[in-house]
Write a structure and sequence with these properties.
The chain has 212 residues and is mainly β. 5% of the residues lie in helices and 42% in strands. The protein has two helices and 14 strands. Strands 1, 4, 7, 9, 10, 11 and 13 form a seven-stranded mixed beta sheet that branches. It has a three-stranded antiparallel beta sheet with strand order 12-8-14, with no helix packed on it. A two-stranded antiparallel sheet has the order 2-3.
């Protein structure tokens, strides 16, 4: 089961006040500075929220549960296996879930756009894949081709979840089918011999649905 993370609109801020005496105590970065013969105070603002009886966050707060990890695999026959994740919106407002950024890390798996992988499938080995996020809620479905994203200014909406409801994000995709042989053509090489692995970072952006 994928790990989950809550995006909760809890605000915590610190504010340094003047000491009980006339000596000023606050320095930079909310560090109290002063002499040890004086007493100093610090006010810390703590904000909290209490959900309704139905488990909904109060007005003005956003609470959305998203996956913090996603996995996929490709078997020896180039079959792609993804996974589904629930996105639960406990807010009192609807929210949009956008894909802000997708970037590659370590590894030797190459993510292609869906169109490139589809047209070149037989000429690419299984270390070449396309990844697609499909969001569905309330009978509406939206997809984002992760291999077509560039930079960090995409902000493509993948899901809209009404207040107090649950949506679904599915990670799906496909892989190349070309077999890789060694120079003598008597055995597998490359990905067919050693497999492949890769790490990627997917950045979601969550914001209030401004259309409702």
């Amino acid at each position: 089961m994928a790990m989950k993370k809550k995006f909760l609109g809890l605000a915590m801020a610190a504010m340094v006040a003047l000491p009980a005496t006339s000596v000023y105590a606050a320095g930079e970065n909310n560090i109290i500075n002063g002499v040890d013969t004086q007493t100093y105070t610090q006010n810390v603002k703590v904000s909290g929220s209490v959900s309704t009886k139905e488990g909904i966050a109060p007005a003005g707060k956003i609470e959305v549960e998203l996956p913090t990890s996603m996995t996929f695999s490709v078997d020896e026959a180039s079959n792609f296996k993804g996974v589904e994740y629930n996105v639960q919106n406990r807010s009192s407002v609807g929210v949009d879930v956008l894909v802000s950024e997708f970037r590659a890390g370590e590894g030797n798996i190459t993510v292609k756009s869906k169109s490139d992988l589809t047209t070149q499938k037989t000429s690419l080995d299984r270390s070449n894949v396309y990844l697609e996020l499909v969001g569905s809620a309330g009978g509406q479905a939206t997809s984002v081709d992760l291999g077509s994203l560039t930079g960090n200014t995409n902000n493509q909406k993948v899901l809209n979840v009404a207040k107090g409801s649950t949506g679904l994000i599915t990670l799906t995709g496909g892989a190349g089918t070309k077999e890789v042989k060694n120079a003598s053509q008597d055995g597998p090489d490359g990905v067919d011999k050693d497999g492949a692995k890769g790490d990627f970072t997917l950045v979601f952006k969550i914001q209030k649905d401004t259309k409702h």
